[in-house]
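Sample A.
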Amino acid sequence: MTKCFMAKPADVTRQWHVVDADGQVLGRLATRIATVLCGKHKPTFTPHVDTGDFVVVLNAAKVRVTGRKLDQKPYWILSRRPGHIRSKTLREMMATRPDQVIREAVRRMLPHSNLGRHMLRKLKVYKGPDHPHAAQNPQPLAAQ
């Protein structure tokens, strides 16, 4: 009888990866990051266990978008009060919070459950080229 392999949370070994977002297309970068956060790049992937790795994204302010998304893509900000919903364009978000743009793109590609929220905690996004995770010895994420 053949048994399927199921990873257990205690058996998962996590690595740290670093990605330079300078000049990369936002959506393509987000799919690569979401794949690593889910653990789908590993042979030990299990859908109901978080087997993914940590990802550090640098130069979030230099990410590239195609088409007319800078002026047409809305981001909705909701304060949970009646009548307090606001919208900002991608251009306004890139000027003020470029790290949130990448985080939102990746969040929408992860599972919409507690497991997805746990995976998103392993994503670290920084505007510039510096990060405080040198002690974890992050390796560059291989191009796919």
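Sample B.
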Amino acid sequence: MSESKRYLEIIKELNQIIQTDKLTSGDKLPSERELSDRLQVGRSSVREALRALELLDLIETRRGEGTYIKPVGSYRLVNIILSFLLKDSGAREDLTETRRIIELEALRLACERMTSQTLEKLYSLILKSKDEWSHGDIPVEEDYLFHQTIVEASQNRLLLNLWISLVEYNKVAIKESLEREGRPALSIQEHEVIFEAIQQRDREKAVLFMKKHLENSRF
């Protein structure tokens, strides 16, 4: 089973445990160790799956207490995302298209609402990506954060939550894309021209460059 498919299956099984154990809003989830034993997977895999659910605001971790479920209504979104991701390639293409639509619209808003602090953050992520790549490391986290920062800059919380739900579950795809020969350096260059367009508040140019970047990234 591929890393991305395995990751999604763990999240699906976590959701099944919640239903089987009849856990509801406010209830405590089993510990990482117990989930690892029940699912027969490594604790690091369980931890990543829990992190994804926490980013979607479906669970919360309380220091020294454990992990608790947030309002159950949010699980409808999880089920929708999982039902698509675990189906055929055509359905996954629909998700890719939806992610592109959301990110481009968020970028249009970000060009108007971007603060100087956020511009500095984007630039620092580009510099960090270059540093990682110069040492032979693939800048997966920096790539993810570059895109997330742009969506956050739209100042539209719903767009951000939708984007996270579409991208976080398939974060492995970013790594797979960047592992292609010569791709990291090109991706960083594409980030640079997107950044420059945003800095100039040139919305149309920024959107055009982002479209090309997403196509080249195979998202």
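B remarks: The longest helix spans residues 89-113. The longest strand covers residues 59-62.
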